[in-house]
Specification:
By secondary structure, the chain is α/β, with parallel strands linked by helices. The protein is built from twelve helices and eleven strands. It has two domains: 160 residues, Rossmann fold (3-Layer(aba) Sandwich), CATH 3.40.50; 140 residues, Isocitrate/Isopropylmalate dehydrogenase-like (Rossmann fold). A hairpin with a 5-residue loop joins strand 10 and strand 11. Helix 2 packs across helix 12, helix 3 crosses helix 4 and helix 5 packs parallel to helix 6. 50% of the residues are buried.
C-alpha cells in the first residue's frame, strides 16, 4: 500500500470539489495550494487576512481552481450574523459571534460549507484541534442520527508487514477525551466505514485495551466489551473484535497465542483506542519512532467533510488531507 496517497490524489482529480483552506498565511498551506491548483486536485478557496496573497499564485495557472477571499469587515459580518443565528439559543450574543468569527476564520469556513458555498474544509496548520473540531461541530450539521464527531488518522508505516501492509486507520485520536460505551461503538463504526469507502480496503477492527479477551478485569474492560456488543448488534457486516492488547491485534504470532480463534486478532487494520490520551500518544509514537505518515485527524460524523491538521504537519500532509476531503465530498454529493 506504499502508493495509497498517490491513489487518493488521482481519485480526487477525477472530480475536483471546492475545499476551503482558511489558514492562507501559513507557508505550508501556500506551498500545498500551489501543488493542488497546478494538479487540478481541488478547487481551492483560500482565506487572505491581510489582502496580500494574490501575488504568490500568479505563475501557478489554472485560475479556475483558486479563489482567494479577503477577510474584509463586511464579509466577516455576514458570517458573524449566521453564527449568531445558529448559536443564540446557546447564549451567544452577536458581539461574541463577531469576535469568534473574526479571531478564528475556521468558523467562517464551517459556515460556508453549511451554506453550500464549498464542499468541505481543511484546517489546523496553525489552529488547535479543539478549535477546528469546535468550528466543525458548531457550524456544520451532524451526519444522520450519529451524535458523535471523532477524529481518525490514516497511518502508513514503511516496511511494515502488519495491518494492510503497513496501512492502518487509528481512531479516535483527536476529539473525544473519554468516550462513553455508545461513543466508542460509533467511533468503531465510522472508522470502519471510512476505511472501506475511502481507502477501498476491508476493515478489520480491533478495540484496543491493556487486556486481551479477559486477561484482565475492570470497569474500562467492561465498557469495551459492551461497545463491541453494540457494534455487532447494529452492524453485522463489520468485522470487529476485542478487547485486544496492541500486539494481539496486529501480530499474527502473538494472536495465535493470546486469541487463536478470533477473526480479527493478528490482522487488524483499524485500531480503536479506549480514550483520547491513548489514541493521541499512540499515533504520535508511531509517526515519530517508525517514521510513519500520519494524515489527519479526519473529522468523521459530519454531514459534510472536514479535516484537521496537526500543527506539526508538512506540505505533503496538507495535500493528502485535501485529497481525502475531496473524495469524501464526491461521495456526500
Amino acid at each position: 500500500m506504499d502508493n495509497i496517497f498517490l491513489f487518493l490524489r488521482e481519485k480526487a482529480k477525477k472530480n475536483p470539489k471546492s475545499i476551503i483552506l482558511p489558514e492562507g498565511e501559513d507557508k505550508r498551506i501556500q506551498e500545498a495550494v500551489k501543488f493542488i491548483v497546478k494538479e487540478k486536485m481541488a478547487k481551492v478557496i483560500l482565506f487572505d487576512k491581510k489582502g496580500n496573497l494574490g501575488g504568490l499564485f500568479k505563475d501557478v495557472g489554472n485560475e479556475d481552481f483558486l479563489k482567494i477571499i479577503e477577510l474584509k469587515d463586511e464579509v466577516m459580518e455576514r458570517y458573524a450574523n449566521l453564527y449568531f443565528e445558529l448559536r443564540k439559543k446557546k447564549g451567544i450574543s452577536l458581539d461574541i459571534a463577531r469576535r469568534i468569527v473574526r479571531e478564528n476564520p475556521v468558523f467562517m469556513a464551517g459556515l460556508m460549507v453549511r451554506e453550500k458555498e464549498a464542499d468541505g474544509f481543511v484546517a489546523g496548520a496553525c489552529t488547535s484541534t479543539s478549535d477546528v473540531a469546535r468550528a466543525a461541530i458548531h457550524c456544520m450539521k451532524r451526519e444522520g442520527e450519529t451524535p458523535t464527531v471523532m477524529g481518525a488518522f490514516i497511518i502508513l508505516v514503511p516496511d511494515c508487514p502488519y495491518g494492510e501492509n503497513g496501512l492502518f486507520v487509528f481512531a479516535d485520536c483527536g476529539v473525544i477525551p473519554l468516550p462513553t460505551t455508545e461513543q466508542l461503538a460509533e467511533i468503531a463504526i465510522e472508522a470502519a466505514d471510512f476505511t472501506k469507502d475511502i481507502l477501498g480496503i476491508l476493515p478489520r477492527v480491533a478495540l484496543l485495551s491493556y487486556s486481551t479477551k479477559g486477561s484482565s478485569k475492570g470497569e474500562n474492560i467492561e465498557k469495551i466489551i459492551k461497545a463491541l456488543e453494540i457494534v455487532k448488534k447494529k452492524r453485522r457486516d463489520i468485522l470487529i473484535d476485542g478487547e485486544f492488547q496492541v500486539d494481539a491485534a496486529i501480530v499474527p504470532e502473538v494472536a495465535g497465542i493470546k486469541s487463536p480463534h478470533s477473526p480479527v486478532a493478528g490482522k487488524a487494520n483499524v485500531l480503536i483506542f479506549p480514550n483520547l490520551e491513548a489514541g493521541n500518544c499512540g499515533y504520535k509514537l508511531v509517526q515519530r519512532l517508525a517514521k510513519a505518515r500520519a494524515v489527519g485527524p479526519i473529522l468523521l460524523g459530519l454531514e459534510k467533510p472536514a479535516s484537521d491538521l496537526s500543527r506539526g504537519c508538512n506540505v505533503e500532509d496538507v495535500i493528502d488531507a485535501v485529497a481525502i476531503t475531496v473524495i469524501r465530498a464526491q461521495r456526500s454529493n
